[in-house]
Amino acid sequence: MKKTWWKESVVYQIYPRSFKDGNGDGSGDLRGIAAKLDYLQWLGVDVLWLCPIFQSPNDDNGYDISDYRAIMAEFGTMADFDELLAQAHRRGLKILLDLVVNHSSDEHAWFVESRKSRDNPYRDFYIWKEGKNGQEPNNWGSAFGGSAWQYDPATAMYYLHCFSKKQPDLNWDNPAVRREVQDIVRWWLDKGVDGFRMDVINLISKDPRFPDGPVAPGKLYADCSLALNGPRVHEYLRELHQNVLSKYDIMTVGETGGVTPAIARDYVAENRAELNMLFHFEHMDLDKDRERLAQKPFRLTELKRILSTWQKDLGDDGWNSLYWNNHDQPRVVSRFGNDQEYWEKSAKMLATCLYLQRGTPYIYQGEEIGMTNMAFETIADYRDIGVLHAYQEEVVQKGRDCQEFLRYQRHFSRDNARTPMQWDDSANAGFSGGTPWIKVNPNYRRINVSAQMTDRESILHYYRRLIKTRKENEVILYGSYDLILADSEEIYAYIRALDKQGLLVVCNFTAQTPLFELPEHIRYSAGQLLIGNYTVTDGPMARFSLRPYECRAYLFS
Ligand code: TEU
Ligand code: CA
Prior knowledge:
Layout: E1 11-14, H1 30-35, H2 37-43, E2 47-50, E3 54-55, E4 67-71, H3 78-90, E5 94-99, H4 109-114, E6 128-129, E7 140-141, E8 149-152, E9 157-160, H5 175-191, E10 195-198, E11 222-223, H6 233-243, E12 251-255, H7 261-268, E13 277-279, E14 288-289, E15 294-295, H8 300-313, E16 321-322, H9 332-335, H10 343-355, E17 360-364, H11 385-397, H12 402-412, H13 449-453, H14 459-472, H15 474-478, E18 480-484, E19 491-498, E20 501-508, E21 515-517, E22 527-532, E23 543-545, E24 551-556
Parallel strand pairs: 1-2, 1-17, 2-5, 5-10, 7-11, 10-12, 12-13, 16-17
Antiparallel strand pairs: 3-4, 6-9, 8-9, 14-15, 18-19, 19-20, 20-24, 21-23, 22-24
Helix pairs in contact: 10-14
Bound molecules: 1-O-alpha-D-glucopyranosyl-D-fructose (TEU) and calcium ion.
Residues 21-23, 25, 27, 29 line the site of calcium ion.
Subcellular location: Cytoplasm
GO molecular function, one term: alpha-amylase activity
Pfam family, one: Alpha-amylase
């Protein structure tokens, strides 16, 4: 397996709007990020992924871009960005930008032109279709609810938007669109950025027949995700790679829903020359019934099966991204851990379980201090377009019980991840001197960076230690992975091995005290505790009982 810097890096994801407000207007910004670079360097991460910072009307918080070469005014100026990049590089930190090119904003100059007339030179930058019998061209639905087609009276045709109607899908079948995207990517790489996270990148190629899709019970439309992994997606990614990406020493990670390990290989295998790695979502729907908007029971055996399959199948060719959290997901400690009595133990355990696997770790802002879900009380507290649209559709239109709806959103809403970063116990968690754009989690007095900085036993210090431990042990970076005790619903345990070095990782996902027993076929001579979340007095590594949410990693040879 080829060794590269991005396989040995730890990525830290920043949601700029909620990270740090530099000018007191209530919204995070680039100067705010720059002010926290020392902190990030101290933590030991290598790469910062910034969610979109480009000019945008913010229908979907920057995922609707109206100028790919300009900085969103609320976040600062291009000079602020140049300064941030220089300051980051000075500290050895790399910067990834979020490339959102499946769609643009409807306020982008291309779309403003495109909608003017049927023969506008930019008409084919987007996907326009005639209606069918006075209705939408097909039954595709938008990810945020309703049809994925919007009728535009100016030209009496419909345009496709797999997300909101302010996010029209670009037409990648048009070579001029692909050239524009290449130019944008080259422009930023020439500026010195270190790579891209590519938003819904496997949605860029639509089936030219635009066939109707299956409609789930109780729904009106087919999920637009049926258009993922379309017919020409690999051709387009290879073209982008060959013409632009391959000319720079950068990293790329695709956001790709609807991808199994078998499908993933075609995107990330080394000889494919497309992407370095991707985000799959197979472990994100484990406890979520998307169709019914309900919680479903979490089964550890399922989580293990999914993550282990990815570990195995992208073993020697391809590379995994390791994440529990991002700006679209609830907080992991509230989800697969325990944000009450075992908050600290379970946060450390979850980090250990994931970040000692093979792949590049992604830490989402606040995860390193165990930030939790937020109990928003009313619909007025929410900011996410996804929640607001769902509310209209489910509660207002379909008459669904409002409390039940809010209960679901308290578990799963994207706004759980978007509350301001908790820096200290001063007003607004030290995030902003103004009124934050979204409510601060009231638990900030207890959970914040400043308190954890001074406590060597904190989650924050544990993350720092874990990152350091990864870097010091080649077996964590490049060793093989084998799940053991696959049938346990309590313990997640696996073995990593490289040459003569072995690593045993044992994690208790419960508040109980299950007994761990090393399977007999595994031989070892001596074990040394590398990291763990409880004090361990030396004892056998082959058999011990675990305390609530305990984790241990033993190095052996
Ligand atoms: O998300 C793509 C995506 O598939 C989401 O709809 C995801 O399934 C959902 O948020 C989970 O609740 C990306 C971005 O990460 C997201 O923030 C954007 O809203 C979306 O693309 C459109 O750009
Ligand atoms: Ca600001």
